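Why does residue order matter? Because the sequence determines the fold. Keep that principle in mind as you read this record.
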Amino acid sequence: GPYDEEFFNAYGGFKNKLAADVDVIGIQDDLSQYKVIVIPNHRITTPEQAEKIKDFVQRGGIVVMNSESGTRDEFNRMYEMLEPGLFTELCGAEITENISAEKLEAQTGLPSEIEFNNGYKVKLNGKIFRIRLNGAESAAHYTTGRLCGTPAVTVNKFGNGFAVMYATDGNDIYFYEALAGFIKNRFNISPLLDADDGILVSSRRNSDKEFIFAVNMKDSPANIRLNEPMHELLTDRTACGTFTLDGYDAAVFEKTI
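Structure:
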């Protein structure tokens, strides 16, 4: 269903772009061990859950959500407030209009795109929204039609942390890759490995060693740049500098911690 698609696009986009560990957890779990949490289309949200997210951000965490999060109660009833509902104060912005990206494209004859402040552009599809800022800053803007120049992604300082809101239902993995790239650069999130796009990276550790797994999801070679020697377990050799993974190949690096 659409909720599954939204989840897999968000997970895949962030996993690929961050080259870092990406866990799947529930809102009832302990959030304190995480620097960033992503809650795509978390529409059904209780006041208690909203307070938990706010407390996470207040303490220095970063939450990433779209404007439809926090808009329905546990019985799937709409809250009588503008989107993002229970997260309006947290996000420092609210929604005043929605339109489909396809309709906007038909009206203008131009692709429905947003442009991040670093100049990177990404095409949108599905629903998009007009944002009114109430303290947040714009991190990306629409490039066409009656939404041209208005915010499409916002960042709001809340306590010691930040809330990032994006004004689309986010059903495209390429959008999530662009959003993850912005998050990575804005908040200095270090990758486990310096790897080309298409290499998925994750890690596990015990008391004295860390094991970093790298899988090339493409059918062509891709590179990893190692800034220190590491033992590669599958080939049983020491690797350093540029390490090339063939298409659909994998590597496991071991390092002492």
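The longest strand covers residues 222-232.
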